[in-house]
Predict the 3D structure of the following.
Amino acid sequence: MTEANWLTGRNGRALAVGIAVLGLTLIWFGVVDPARSWFEDRALRLDQRRTLLHRMQEIATTLPSLRAEAAGKSARGEGNGAIMLSGASDAVAAADLQERVQKMAVSAGANLTAVETLPVSQSGKWHKVSLRISLNAPWPVLMDLLRSIELSSMRILVDDVRFHSATIVSRPTILPIQASMVVYGFRPAEAGSGT
């Protein structure tokens, strides 16, 4: 067959149809499908933003009542005192924090092996009172202690958590694990720093 035979007659028509199908396929996958996908993604993102806007507007409508409630608590003396560390000085607040954490550890079934009072840092209107605690306890007991700190009515935060176990066994939950962590809370700076 020569080139002329491929371009004419039945073969030429089949070649033309094949090229047309190939061209349409390339246009579909190269232009139409990506554009359609881009529009669908934009529509989804727009829908998510509308949902977020609606949620934020609902939250914003509760702001005046929350401010009024906070003002009422502040007037009754129930403000930050319920969740912040109390005490006439940073040392008293650190002692109060240590006592609270010790009680939580005992109720979880652990004993603190070391407690170190860290230097107090001031951040704006707040003093950050921190303790580094160490203990040896099985894993479930450590989790109970962390859970009780999290659920405490006073806002006590945990940072720099470190676990260490000297042995690797098949049932590590029954062996004690060495743990250390920094627990801290805040107290108002206007209460004075003291010593």
